[in-house]
Specification:
The chain is an alpha+beta fold and 253 residues long. The protein has eight helices and eight strands, in the order H-H-E-E-H-H-E-E-H-E-H-E-E-E-H-H. The chain is 43% helix and 16% strand.
């Protein structure tokens, strides 16, 4: 009688698939590996990383990556008391945390952008007028008015001109802010007009009153007079007044 012995196959794990420092470096890159390694040593008394400097093993604070090798990383993992597989898990967790934070920031940026767009739309519902400038006029219309009034207007948020200069006014086609000086209610005032990026429409006027030489009580009286006489009619459109005080990013348009 013949007996057949069952064949038992034993599968040995392939060493090439084991989590090694070499595998971690290949998968995540030295920059990421060193970054997480630095984070692990931050809370330690000796936070220096091991380096290989021309064959000599040393330790250094945040060394150049060229001196860090698989050999030095293994020594540092031994100092930390963790295995390569554990270190790989730490890197994966760090990547996941950073991705979550990145998505969170993207969502927050999107939320703020939508909020600002909503505010702009509400602002345009009311419209405004200040020192002869009406909301939603174009840059072209503004320049025509500046020529007509011979305003000392410059591209940007400051001006040094003492007379109208058309060449300078047209010297920066991509500019969305234009500034000039005038006299409002007996006081020197710097006016900055801000236009949207794409549609080139006026959405904000900033008036800087040069009243630093006045006494506090005189300055308050002057600002109160400005509020009462402001063509925007702040009492009627409170929401508009609040929006005019906010900085709305031109880059959204």
């Amino acid at each position: 009688m013949k007996y057949f012995l069952p064949l038992i196959f034993i599968y040995l794990s392939n060493p090439s698939y084991a989590t090694t420092v070499e595998y971690i470096l290949q998968k995540h890159g030295k920059n990421k590996v060193v970054s997480v390694l630095n984070e692990q040593f931050q809370s330690r008394e000796n936070s220096k990383l091991t380096i290989d400097f021309d064959g000599a093993i040393r330790q250094m604070h945040r060394p150049a990556q060229e001196y860090i090798t698989a050999k030095t990383i293994k020594k540092d993992l031994k100092r930390l008391g963790i295995e390569a597989a554990q270190f790989n898990d730490l890197i994966i967790k760090d990547l996941e945390d950073r991705n979550r934070e990145k998505l969170k920031k993207i969502e927050e940026t999107k939320r703020l952008r939508l909020k600002r767009i909503k505010e702009i739309k509400e602002l345009r519902m009311f419209g405004f007028e200040f020192d002869g400038w009406k909301s939603d006029i174009s840059i072209f219309e503004m320049k025509q008015q500046a020529r007509k009034l011979q305003l000392t207007m410059s591209p940007g948020q400051s001006t040094y001109l003492t007379s109208y200069n058309e060449r300078l006014l047209n010297s920066q086609p991509a500019q969305r802010n234009y500034t000039y000086r005038t006299n409002l209610m007996g006081k020197i005032t710097t006016i900055t007009l801000s236009f949207t990026k794409d549609t080139k429409k006026l959405f904000q006027v900033k008036a800087t009153f040069h009243v630093s030489q006045l006494k506090p009580e005189e300055e308050n009286i002057f600002m109160n007079l400005f509020t009462l006489n402001c063509p925007i009619n702040m009492a009627k459109h409170k929401i508009l007044a609040e929006m005019m005080l906010k900085k709305i990013l031109v880059s959204l348009y």
